[in-house]
Amino acid sequence: IMLHSTLALSLLLIAVTSNLAMAIKKEKRAPQTLSRGWGDEITWVQTYEEGLYQAKKSNKPLMVIHHLEDCQYCQALKKAFAENEEIQEMAQNNFVMLNLMHETTDKNLSPDGQYVPRIMFVDPSLTVRADITGRYSNRLYTYEPQDISFLIENMKKALRLIQTEL
């Protein structure tokens, strides 16, 4: 009987510790709330200022996504963005990434208004690339889910422009 209860106790202990280990592992992943659903594998900066600093330091363009939680267009774009492997990989490896649910004080980030969703690129020289636009003339920096390939082209353009101009 003694052996039986010892065995049961050790099994219980193993179960508890592995659950605990899993909880800790999950806990470790949790700080990725900065992704807000745009891509959990991407390293996101918290503020625009931090983004500018990282862009300059790493010589990577900063990609700024303005969005709001209760905006259906933002949600649709976010889903397409998060599900696209090419975007996720480029965002993770070649860009400093920031998604914001509030406006920045930098007026250069809203050249044609403060609408959402809005995606803009900032060069490592800290120049806002007003020349990298989406396909809509009334909202130059907006993208829709069906514009994902266009956004990919613009991401590549942002990368190309650094190499040729700096």
TrEMBL record:
Residues 1-23 form the signal peptide. Transmembrane segments: none annotated. GO terms for cellular component: endoplasmic reticulum. It comes from the Eukaryota. Keywords: Signal. GO terms for molecular function: dystroglycan binding. This is AGR3 protein. Belongs to the AGR family.
